[in-house]
Design brief:
The structure holds 2 protein chains of 2 kinds. Chain A is an alpha+beta fold. Chain A has one domain: Nuclear Transport Factor 2, Chain: A. Chain A has 4 helices and 8 strands. In chain A, a hairpin with a 2-residue loop joins strand 6 and strand 7. Chain A starts with a helix and ends in a 7-residue tail after the last strand. By secondary structure, chain B is of the alpha+beta class. Chain B has 2 domains: about 110 residues, Rieske [2Fe-2S] iron-sulphur domain (Rieske Iron-sulfur Protein), CATH 2.102.10.10; about 240 residues, Naphthalene 1,2-dioxygenase Alpha Subunit, Chain A, domain 1 (Alpha-Beta Complex). In chain B, strands 14-20-19-18-17-16-15 form a 7-stranded antiparallel β-sheet, with helices on both faces. In chain B, a hairpin with a 5-residue loop joins strand 19 and strand 20. Chain B is globular, with a radius of gyration of 24 Å. The chains are: A alpha+beta, B alpha+beta. Chain B: This is Aromatic ring-hydroxylating dioxygenase subunit alpha.
Chain lengths: ~160, ~425
């Protein structure tokens, strides 16, 4: 792990934030490996070792199914998201990939309403280097904002 | 203002037109809290497995009052109000934990896990020389100053409590029909806690009861249900209530025969649409279902018991003023589930909760209904699908359960003091 790695992971995080903030769900899916894990977990469950997630996906196909639901079946108030992601903290690297984490804050803005803090927490990532560049093999969003303001539609 | 003048005008004796006022009036809300949550009713507080060991406690709410469920050394489960008998402080701040006793930090009054007052600092004053300064009056009796203790009902692993020690038995409260569906889910097998989801929905708390008493919307709002064949108009189904129409069960069994398109006259149905990952709907029937693939039980006023295929949970309703409520989901399984079944329950949990494929939109529509209730005085909702009367049915094409709930609501709310 060196400055170059830190730079590349920061770039990956920036690409991720750009994709979800733009609502570019195809770009979101493309940042994951085929057999990826993606979870959104209340900090309470995470710290108590309770396995329930708010969303728990175990493949890129499941992410695609969520995209279909966002586009076609879930009725909800439209809203913008804006992610502010802290610098990645690189933790360890082995054959399974590079483990790192970063703090995040997501602001939500509904049409013609004030912006609010929607969800804050920490990404726990395992990223792997692929021919296409760094990809998420695992992204677990552990959120402090355990009381969700009504519903959570888009990926965090 | 006398209590009766706070009641909104109903168009008739029936309950098929519900005045917007029942969702918007703060005085009415206070009366609901008093009459439904604090008197004469049992409210959900949790699962026994959440306080598995002596000393375990869980903080929760009944209505807008903070309560604590505890397990004492003798294995009993107690529910006490989180209000110090001295200065009224809500002393318990942790959401769960383990303790030998409770101590209010303000003046260190100490309580046993059953709520009894164990210690009052300087009760007998401070001795200085041969004088005693201060202290509580000689007739101060700690036995009279414990925490408010609630009546507790345990059945099949779930715990309910009531501030009203004169409340009927829990079994009588549910009535035989709803008790049957309750016992189907909570049949005494040890439970396994899977975790929580919490959401704050800006709508009146009754709207969530209505949502699960409304079989009209699932096939129309929740197009995901329809798209992937989980909801079909040929589902065998029944709606059942207790004798007072306050609780209900929506019971359905997935249709098996024929092309779903032939019986589902809903535009969102797409017979060729397949999940990219079918594991979301890796449904394995369980013996305890006894047939139905989904039973949604509304226990008035505080909880919904969910069995949707392999996903089981309680959904607790905690009012937050007239215009909002906390909605707290506790997902569980059973201690004898193998790893594959636990994984299945966790994966199907994606369908439910604040982000669920078929539940996220419920909170949204409730919010948008409340917006109109608050801005449009004199309006009313219309609940006339299936007629204007109240009764059990063998189909889902009716709003009879909503009419039934408001018949009960009127009985209780319009009664004299």
């Amino acid at each position: 792990m060196n400055a170059q790695t830190l730079y590349e992971i920061a770039q990956l995080h920036a690409d991720y934030a750009a994709a979800v903030d733009a609502g570019d769900w195809d770009a979101w899916v493309a940042l994951f490996t085929e057999d990826c894990v993606y979870r959104i977990v209340p900090r309470e469950n995470f710290e108590r070792g309770l396995p329930l997630a708010t969303l728990a996906f175990d493949s890129r196909a499941m992410l695609q199914d969520r995209v279909y639901a966002i586009r076609e079946t879930l009725f909800h108030d439209p809203y913008y998201q804006r992610h502010v992601v802290g610098l990645p903290r690189l933790l360890s690297q082995d054959d399974a990939g590079l483990r790192c984490e970063a703090n995040y804050a997501v602001f939500r803005t509904k049409l013609s309403q004030l912006s609010t803090v929607f969800n804050v927490g920490r990404y726990l990532d395992r990223v792997v280097h692929t021919p296409a560049g760094w990809r998420f093999a695992e992204r677990v969003c552990v959120y402090d904002s355990e009381m969700i303001p009504n519903s959570l539609i888009y990926p965090i | 203002m006398t209590p009766t003048t706070a009641l909104p005008p109903w168009a008739s004796e029936g309950t098929h037109r519900i005045p917007f006022g029942v969702y918007t009036d703060e005085q009415l809300h206070q009366r609901e809290l008093q009459r439904f949550f604090y008197q004469g009713h049992w409210c959900y507080v949790g699962l026994e497995v959440e306080v598995a060991e002596p000393g375990d406690f869980k903080r929760t709410s009944i209505g807008e009052r903070s309560v604590i469920m505890t397990r004492s050394a003798d294995g009993e489960i107690h529910v006490v109000e989180n209000v110090c008998a001295h200065r009224g402080m809500r002393f318990c701040r942790e959401r769960h934990g383990r303790a030998k006793n409770f101590v209010c930090p303000y003046h260190q009054w100490g309580y046993g896990l059953d709520g009894s007052l164990k210690g009052v600092p300087f009760q007998r004053g401070v001795r200085k020389g041969d004088q005693v300064h201060g202290g509580m009056p000689a007739d101060f009796n700690p036995a009279e100053h414990g925490l408010t203790r609630l009546k507790v009902a345990r059945r099949g692993g779930a715990v309910f409590a009531s501030f009203d020690h004169g409340v009927e038995s829990f079994e009588d409260y549910l009535g035989p029909t709803i008790l049957g569906y309750y016992d189907r889910l909570f049949n005494g097998r040890p439970l396994k806690l899977l975790g929580y989801n919490r959401q704050h929905i800006p709508g009146n708390w009754k709207l969530m009861q209505e949502n699960i008493k409304d079989p009209y919307h699932p096939g129309l709002l929740h197009t995901w249900f329809v798209t992937f064949g989980l909801w079909r108009a040929d589902n065998e189904s029944a709606l059942k209530m207790d004798a007072r129409h306050r609780h209900a069960a929506m019971i359905s069994t997935r249709g098996q025969a024929g092309e779903a398109g032939q019986v589902t006259a809903v535009s969102s149905f797409k017979s060729r649409m397949q999940l990219n990952d079918p594991r979301f709907l890796d449904i394995v029937p369980e013996p305890w279902w006894g047939g139905p693939t989904a039973v949604m039980t509304t226990v008035f006023p505080s909880v919904i018991l969910q069995q949707q295929v392999n996903s089981v949970s309680t959904r607790q309703i905690v009012p937050d003023g007239h215009g909002a409520f906390f909605f707290e989901w506790t997902h569980f399984g059973f201690a004898d589930d193998d790893a594959a079944m636990t994984e299945r329950r966790l994966r199907q949990a994606n369908l439910f909760g604040p982000a669920g494929f078929v539940s996220a939109d419920d909170g949204e529509v409730i919010e948008f209904s409340q917006q109109a209730f608050d801005s449009t005085p004199g309006g009313h909702t219309l609940a006339e699908l299936g007629g204007r009367d109240v009764g059990d049915t063998g189909h889902m094409v009716t709003e009879t359960l909503i009419r039934g709930m408001y018949r009960y609501w009127r009985e209780v709310m319009e009664a004299g003091e």
